[in-house]
Each structure stands twice: as structure tokens, then as C-alpha cells.
């Protein structure tokens, strides 16, 4: 009896093989995308251990929401993020009062003057509410109000720089408030438009002392 040397693979087996191959490709793609995301977030100045922890649990959560979680999570030990270098422009570091509020605007978004004003107001009011809830800052808040509620507005060149400045503030444990716009007018939804810090000259100088005044 003659037999053929060709082996016939059942159709359901071919389908199973194809399913496994597709799954392997998807897993490889997810792994590549995860590595890219981790690299981008650590380049922004976040602790790699914290990034890995949050990314591993994030699933398909958008990058913007992961950044928001990183900004609102206690970082623990982290590598220091360098302060923005002095490029020779006018600085505000010699302005001295006991406490001040520093508002940082994301100028990379090319917002109009009115939009910048509204985002600065959101940052200031949001931070004020944060400070009011801090019993340890009550005396600082009183003296700040009595001294004219000094506010200074500086600029970050883009979102990455704004994130780095915010991360540096967290490392130094400075009270802050971040503004993410709803995206109804000039910018994309959830754009990181501004943030505000509150503290003394000594506390703020390592974080925002080299940022240029907004002009």
C-alpha cells in the first residue's frame, strides 16, 4: 500500500497556530511600546522605579493620565533633576520676600494673552486652596497675605520642561498645583498649561530660580 509523504494539518490546528503567532506579535509590540514609554517618562525626570511601577499597572491608560499619576504620587528616593541653566536673561532670584507664589506657564503651547491669564488664575486659586488645607502652612499663608500676596510668573519652554520643574518641586516637597486644560478653546484636551508653587526664597530657588520671567 502506497502512502503519501505529505502531512495534512487540520484547519483548526492552523487557526490555533495563527492565533498564537498573532498573540506573540501583539505581546512583542506591547513590550516595545512599554519600553518606549518608560524611556520617555524617565527622560522627563521621573524615577525609573516609580515609572515601571505605574506603567506596569496602567494597561492601556493614555500617557497624559500616567504623567498625571506620576505627578501626584510620592516619588520616594529619586535622582535629582537639574535646574534650568541660566541663559543670561533677566532672572527673578534676587526678589526677596518671606514667601511667594511662583506660577509657571507652558509657553510652548502658544496660548493667547487671555488664555495665559486664565491659566495663571487657575493655578493661583488652586494652590491657594491647597495651602489653606495645610495646618503647617497657616502662619506662612497669613504672613504672605499681610505682605501683599506676592506672585511671580515665569515661563517653561514646553511641556517636558514644565513636568521636570514640577517633579523637582515634588522632590523638594514644595506645595504645588497643576493645571490641565479641558481643551474647549485653544489647546488640546488635558494639556498641561501651568503650575504654581508656594514657599520661601530658599525653598523655591533650586526649583524655579533660573526660570525666565514671563514677558
Secondary-structure topology with pairs:
Elements lengths: L10 H33 L4 H11 L4 H9 L28 E7 L6 H20 L5 H9 L4 E6 L2 H13 L4 E5 L11 E8 L1 H8 L7
Helix pairs in contact: 1-2, 6-7
Give a summary of the structure in a few sentences.
The protein has 215 residues and is α+β, with helices and mostly antiparallel strands. Helix content is 48%, strand content 12%.
Description:
- The chain has 215 residues and is α+β, with helices and mostly antiparallel strands.
- Helices cover 48% and strands 12% of the residues.
- It has seven helices and four strands.
- The N and C termini lie far apart (94 Å).
- Residues 75-95 have low confidence and may be disordered.
Short descriptors:
215 residues; alpha+beta; four-stranded mixed beta sheet; 7 helices; 4 strands; 48% helix; elongated
Task: Tell me the radius of gyration.
Answer: 24 Å
Number of helical regions: 7
Going by helix content, strand content and strand pairing, the class is alpha+beta
- Report the uncertain regions: 75-95
What pattern of helices and strands is seen along the backbone? HHHEHHEHEEH
Number of strands: 4
Q: Major β-sheet, in short?
A: 4 strands, mixed
**How big a fraction of the residues is strand?**
5-15%
